[in-house]
Amino acid sequence: MNGSGRLKSRLLLLSWAIALGIGVLVAVQLLESRSAVWQRASAANTNLVYTVSRLLEDAMHGADHALLHSVTMVETFGTNIQIANGASMRPGADPARLLFPSVPTGRYGIQLILDHTGAIVAASRPPPPGEWNFHDRDYFRIHEERADAGLHIGAPFISNYDGQPSIALSRRWNRPDGSFGGVVVQTLKLTVPHDLFSSFDLGPKGGITVFTSNGSVLSRYPYTSAQAAGATTMVQGLDRFLAGPNGSFIGGAAVDGAETLHVYRRLESFPLIVAMSQARDEILGEWQSNALRLAGATLMLMGACVFLALLAERRMMAQQQAATRAEQAERELRTIVDSLPVLVAYWDDRVINVMANIAHQRWIGKSPEHIRGRHAKDIFGDALYSNVEPFVKAALAGEPQRFECELADVTGRPRHAIVNYIPDHHDGRIKGFFVTVTDISERRAAEMALFEEKERFRVILESIRDGVITTDGEGHILYLNPAAATML
Q1: 354/348 Cα distance (integer angstroms)
Q2: 111/121 Cα distance (integer angstroms)
Q3: Is the Cβ–Cβ distance between 127 and 120 less than 8 Å?
Q4: Residue 41 — φ and ψ, nearest 5°?
Q5: 44-79 pLDDT, tens per residue?
Q6: pLDDT-derived band of residue 399, with 50, 70 and 90 as boundaries?
Q7: Strand, coil or helix: what is 414?
Q8: Residues 361, 370: contact at Cβ < 8 Å?
C-alpha cells in the first residue's frame, strides 16, 4: 500500500472511531437515563398497586366480616327470623340490628339471607316489590353443590335493587345437621372501587384493573363501555399475572390489548388481583422527546466525521460485494457439483487434483479434502493410472476423450463407467482438464440380461419343430426359425 492509501485508511479509521465514540457515549447516557425513568415509574406503580390492594383488601375483609356475622346469626337462631313483618328473635330485640349490624350503607347494596330454595328469608333493606327467587344464580348453585366453597365472588352484573354495576359476595349457611340451609349474599357497588381509583393520578392512558384469579374483570378504572353495561370482560395473558404473588412485566396482556407496563399484586386473603397498567409512551414520552433532540444533534456531529468515511467505504463495499458474490457462486457451484450422482473432478496440467466432488467418498472411499492437491497416481494406483494415462495425455493435448472402463468401488464391487475428459483451454494453452465418471453398471447389467433372454428365446425357437415366422405391419418377414424355413 502506498503512502496515499495508508493515509486514506488512517483517515477512515479515525473518522469512524470519532463518530462511533460520540455515538456510544451519547447512547450510554440515553440508556442510563431511560433506565432511571423506567425504574422510577415501576417503583411508583408498585407503591400505588400496594396501596390500592391493601385498601381493597380491607374493604373485602369488612364485607366478609358482615357475611360471617349474618351466617353465624342465622345458623344460631334458624330461619324463623322474619324481618319483613317485624317479628324478632327475642322480646324487644331488633332483628335487623342483630342480623346486619356490620353492613356499611354507602359502599354496599342490599344483603339477603336465602333459604335452601333460593327464597328471601331476611334482607338488610326492603327488597324491590315482587316474588324473588335466586335459585338459578351461579353463586347459589356453587354453595348448594360445594360445602367448602367459602367466600364466593361473582361476576359483575346490573343490580335490580339500585340499578348499579355490582358484584355479589356470598357465603353458605348450614342447618344444625350440617346440610345446606341457604346462602347469605351481599352486593358490592363497583362505583366504590371506581371512586377509590379516581383519587389517584393515573395519567390519561393509565388504568387500574381488579380481576379474579380466573381472569374475570370485576372493576376497571377508567370504566369501559362493556363494564358499565354489566358485561363480563376477561383479562388477556392471564398466566403472566399468575406467575407470582406480585411482579411486573411489559406486554400486551391488558384488557384492551395495548402494550403497557403492568404491575400487579395478588390479595393475600382473597382470589383477587390488582393490576396497574401504564402505556409505554406515557412513561417515556418526555424522555423520548429529549432523546430525539439529543440524537439529532449527535447525528449532525457524527455526520461530519462519517462523510469522509463514506467516500472510502463505497469502494470497500464494492470490493466486499464482489467477494461475497464470488463466495456465493463458489458455494452454489459446490452444492450443484456435490449433488450430482457422478464423479466430477478437475486436474491441472501436472495431473494434480484441484477439485473433486463428494461422490468420490461414496465411490473410492476418499473425501475431496483427501484427494485435493495429490497426483492421480497416488489416488487411483499405478495399475489404473497406466490404463487411463493415454487418455490423459490426449486430453492435455487438447483432444476431448470419452471411453468406458471398470472401476472397483470402496466395497470392492466392480462398476462399469463412462469417463469423459474435457480439456480446459485458456489463452491458447491447456491448463488442465475436467473429468466426469458416470456409473452405468445397472444399465450394462440390464443390457446383458436382455441379451441373455433373447439368446435363450432364440435357442428355444430354433430347437422346436413348429414353424415360427415374425413379420412387420406390412407383412415383411423379419424372422423365421429353421422349422419354418424347412416348411417353406
Answers
A1: 7
A2: 11
A3: yes
A4: -65, -40
A5: 888 888 888 888 888 788 888 888 988 988 888 776
A6: very high
A7: strand
A8: no
State the residue for C-alpha cell 356490620.
102
* Of 117, 120, 119, 130, the residue nearest 99 (C-alpha): 120
DSSP labels, 123-189: ESSPPPSS--B-TTSHHHHHHHH-TT--SEEPPPEE-TTT--EEEEEEEEEE-TTSSEEEEEEEEEE
CA distance 404 to 441: 11
**Sign of torsion, CA 148 153 157 160?**
positive
Distances (CA, A) of 55 to 62, 173, 390: 11, 28, 101
How many Cα atoms sit within 13 Å of 250 on the Cβ side?
8
How far from 183 is each of 42, 146, 173, 474, CA to CA, in Å?
A: 42, 12, 6, 106
- Confidence (pTM): 0.50
Q: What sign does the dihedral 211-215-216-221 (CA atoms) show?
A: positive
Identify the pLDDT of residue 203: 63
Count of Cβ atoms closer than 10 Å to residue 460 Cβ: 11
Q: What is the pLDDT of residues 166-218, one digit of tens each?
A: 888 999 999 988 899 999 998 887 776 666 666 666 666 678 888 888 888 88
Asked whether the beta carbons of 223 and 247 are under 8 A apart, the reply is no
What does the DSSP assignment read for 229-270?
TT---B-TTHHHHTSSSEEEEEES-STT---EEEEEEE-SSS
Helix (H) / strand (E) element for 416: namely: strand 414-426
Q: Round to whole Å and give the CA distance between 146 and 250.
A: 38
Q: Which residue type does 324 have? A: T
- Cell 463514506 belongs to 310
168 near 141, Cβ under 8 Å? no
The Cα angle at residue 76 between residues 67 and 71, in degrees rounded to 5:
10
pLDDT exceeds cutoff 50 at 228: no
How far is it, in rounded angstroms, from Cα 386 to Cα 391? Answer: 10
- Identify the CA nearest to 363 among candidates 404, 408, 416, 403: 408
